[in-house]
TrEMBL record:
The keyword Signal applies. Belongs to the bacterial solute-binding protein 5 family. It comes from Streptomyces roseoverticillatus. This is ABC transporter substrate-binding protein. Pfam families: SBP_bac_5. Residues 78-454 form the Solute-binding protein family domain. Residues 1-22 form the signal peptide. It is found in: Cell envelope. Keywords: Signal, Transport. CDD domains: PBP2_NikA_DppA_OppA_like (cd00995). SUPFAM superfamilies: Periplasmic binding protein-like II. The keyword Signal applies. InterPro entries: Peptide/Ni-bd (IPR030678), SBP_5 (IPR039424), SBP_5_dom (IPR000914).
Length: 545
């Protein structure tokens, strides 16, 4: 995801700059299948192999190459793919999946229960050092496998060729939703270990597209339609993903759209109103309120953000409404909760008291309680090239003006930013965004806020998505209780309690903006182009005029 967006770290996220690329009116290469080439720009992914695909760029590619038990529809409902059925036992600690028969990987290997066990084991094994393995931490045997004391996933068994049994370490009545993440993809035998470089750069999957050659790092990734795909085949012949300079990727996407180089694009913040005025009348402007959130992550283990009072001081100092109106020019709305409104059964507005409106008095009061003094330095990190510069600068100025601290901005390319956040002793605050990997509140709370979501290695590097390292045993207990609750309405109440604790009382993270995504799309040559649940183009469903 977008984690992340692991679920997925949204590579250029925040409404203003979202992961994808550009559109235009240039010529397309028609293929012999009557399709065409769809072109977009991305920045360099961390991984396109499900073993470690985590941010939006990497998961976009991984979802084209692999298909698992489930996917998620645009409206957030679960869509069966290779799962013909999924049944929990009465206790909710064991699931049985019946897998669609007679599908295969592009090298001819069968996609069966053993292929799923192979893929999940490959992600969770210690040697893979996967940042997305934690999605499986509820499966029995995960701790032993991920800790290196076992090479088998004891909770996974195959009963015949197409029945997968999953034993959980604790009940989870929403486990089936989690299998929509690319980490739960099946794997062919040829994949080998998680650090198989040749496979990492040219994965052999079972999805609607397959690799055309290997990933040309910092240059491009080329996909072609998989004509042996076991489900409905894609209409596009090819997908070309140009890898852009992360320092100005969004600008390059937009220019590429205007010049006809790309068929899908994000836009820099200042250009959005003009782009809307120009391209909306032509039917080339897309808008979607998506299942994600933008927020600031304080590093809870190090001074000065190891104090809830300091975190609240920062939050109260931010005038979200002013930035939404000025920087985002009305195209973004302030967030007052960590969960997005899309999660209708669980969402509650105004969970975050400090998010409702700027309160300079309370900001100074909490700063004084925390020992955050005028003249102190506050590090503020963000990823470059994704359109965040303007709003990050606006937040920094507001915090400086209200609290008298000096905000030191630290912009890094996205891949380097993620690595910096993982370091032991990381400090200050970071721009973050999260886009749902699967349609459950647990997909926000567990990766971003649970103790398990930190997943430190022996050197203290955070391998999980809880980069701020928030840890509260009571919060963890509430998540366990929610998973064990079969009734959805009762489960929602427990999630509400957990969010109130983490976001309002502890201010574990600082919500900033809801995620309304905007894209430009070449509707002159393509049909049925949408922003999907993951904030990506729905490549497998795009038609050609």
């Amino acid at each position: 995801m977008r984690g992340a967006k692991s679920a997925k770290w949204v590579v250029g996220a925040i409404v203003v700059a979202m992961a994808a690329t550009a559109c235009g009116g240039g010529s397309n290469d028609s293929g012999k299948g009557g399709g065409a080439t769809f072109r977009l720009g991305i920045t360099e992914p961390k991984s396109i192999d499900p073993v470690n695909a985590q941010e939006s760029e990497g998961t976009l590619v991984a979802r084209q190459l692999f298909v698992g038990l489930y996917d998620v529809k645009d409206d957030g409902t679960l869509a069966p793919k290779l799962a013909e059925s999924a049944k929990p036992n009465d206790a909710g600690d064991e699931w049985t999946f019946q897998i669609k028969k007679d599908t295969k990987f592009t090298n001819g290997e069968p996609v069966n229960a053993e292929a799923f066990i192979r893929g999940w084991t490959r992600v969770a094994t210690k040697a893979s050092a996967s940042d997305v393995a934690y999605h499986m931490n509820g499966i029995a045997g995960y701790k032993e496998l991920n800790g290196g004391s076992s090479d088998k996933f004891s909770g996974l068994t195959a009963e015949g060729d197409y029945t997968l049994k999953v034993k959980l370490s604790a009940p989870d009545f929403e486990f089936d939703k989690k299998t929509a993440h690319p980490a739960f993809s099946p794997m062919p035998k040829v994949a080998g270990a998680g650090d198989n470089k040749s496979f990492n750069d040219a994965p052999i999957g079972n999805g609607p597209f397959k690799m055309s050659g290997s990933w040309e790092h910092n240059k491009k990734i080329s996909l072609v339609r998989n004509d042996d795909y076991g489900l409905e085949k894609a209409k596009l012949d090819k997908v070309e993903l140009a890898i852009l300079n992360p320092a100005n990727g969004v600008t390059l996407e937009y220019k590429g759209f205007e010049s006809g180089q790309f068929d899908w694009a994000r836009m820099p913040v200042p250009q959005m109103p003009g782009a809307k005025a120009k391209f909306e009348p032509q039917g080339e402007w897309l808008k979607a309120d998506v299942a994600g959130i933008n927020y600031i992550a304080p590093f809870n283990e190090t001074s000065p953000m190891n104090s809830a009072d300091a975190r609240k001081a920062i939050s109260y100092a931010i005038d979200r409404a002013e930035i939404a109106k000025g920087v985002f020019q009305g195209l973004q709305e302030p967030a007052t909760a960590l969960l997005p409104p899309n999660f209708k059964d669980v969402y509650k507005a105004d969970v975050c008291s400090s998010c409702a409106k700027q309160d300079k008095g309370k900001a100074k009061e909490y700063a004084e309680k925390a020992g955050l003094k005028p003249g102190d330095t506050l590090d503020f990190g963000y990823n470059t090239g994704a359109g965040h510069e303007e709003w990050v600068q606006a937040v920094a100025k507001q915090v400086e003006d209200v609290l008298g601290v000096k905000v030191k901005l630290n912009g890094l390319p996205f891949k380097e930013a993620l690595e910096k956040q993982q370091e032991k002793g990381a400090k200050g605050i970071w721009r973050q965004a999260w886009s749902a990997d699967y349609p459950t509140a647990d997909n926000f709370f567990s990766p971003l806020l649970s103790t398990n979501g930190i997943n430190p290695d022996a050197n203290g590097k955070a391998l999980g998505d809880n980069r701020g390292r928030y840890s509260n045993p009571k919060f963890d207990e509430l998540l366990v209780k929610a998973r064990q609750t079969k009734d959805a309405a009762e489960r929602a109440k427990i999630y509400n309690e957990a969010e109130k604790l983490a976001i309002d009382e502890d201010q574990a993270v600082i919500p900033t903006w809801k995620r309304t995504q905007y894209r430009l799309v070449n509707s002159k040559k393509f049909t049925n182009v949408k922003i999907d649940f993951y904030e990506d183009p729905n490549l497998a469903e795009i038609g050609v005029k």
